[in-house]
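Form 7-S
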Amino acid sequence: MLISTTAWQALTEVGVALIPRGADRVELTYGEARDTLTVVASPTPLRPRDIAALISRHSEPCLVIVPTATPGVQKAVEAAGWSWLAEDGQRITGVLRIDSERIPLHPPVEAAKRSARTGPVPWGTFTLIRRMIQRPDITQRELAALVGVSQPRVSQALRALADEEVVWRTSSGWTVRDIDAAIRWWLATYPGPGGISTYWYGLAPAVEQARTVVAAAPPSVVVSGDVAADVIAPWRAPTRAVLYARTGVDLAAAGFVPAGEEEATLEFTVPRDPGLWRPAGMEVTATTGLPLADPLQVIWDVRRSPGSDSEEAAQRVWEVLRRRHRDRGHAA
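Output:
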């Protein structure tokens, strides 16, 4: 996640509204001031010469996020008219430049959890498993088209997955060796969708909140988490709506108020993971009229949702996914 929950809260506490405009683009507003920035997050501290290199690569203003920022780095960023945030494990500090406004951040906040993952995320590999669960016995050429990567990249990923005994080759194509083992591998390995998340509170039931956002958001939006699980395998009343979209929307205009992650009733993410978007012909819209994320994503989101019975709710979606996969295999 490029912008942590605690950073999001720090922004709202000083009166800055954030709307994701892409997986690494945010629109910030402060009163009448408004600006769209590219987010550049580094897991390690940067030096002034690193900032100079970033400035040479980006023609538009950026928001630089680092663990710590030396006075030299702060000066270099601000001299370019850019913004910066530093999260040192105890508090978030920084300076935002929004149009002509300069907004300093000094509130102490609880440390956010950081991922230990380094290097680029192999989104194509995670998407391969998504598609192979939906389409048993599929060729490399078909997979390349569904995943949106080259055949050599598909071949490389399949070999790696075969070495881990997640997939195997059959006489008619490639398939997962064992549906339950494939789901366990995906859930244990998936780092999350990345991108930028915002958290909101609303008074309506979670399903109605999801409907409101789907109506207000751009066409490319899918519903996950409790609301999607209740459509796929009803078990418990949804407590939080989880939605993914290609670009952000101002949910304050739809009646929501910014909230912390724990008290939020709605989570809205513009993800980095391209596998969240189903290819043409594989989209799923429930009888409720809500466009659904694929079941793997739903399981992942439900397992991290509030409530002591979230694991059992996720297991019921898992059972439906297992049955659908086996039915498709028998029909092939």
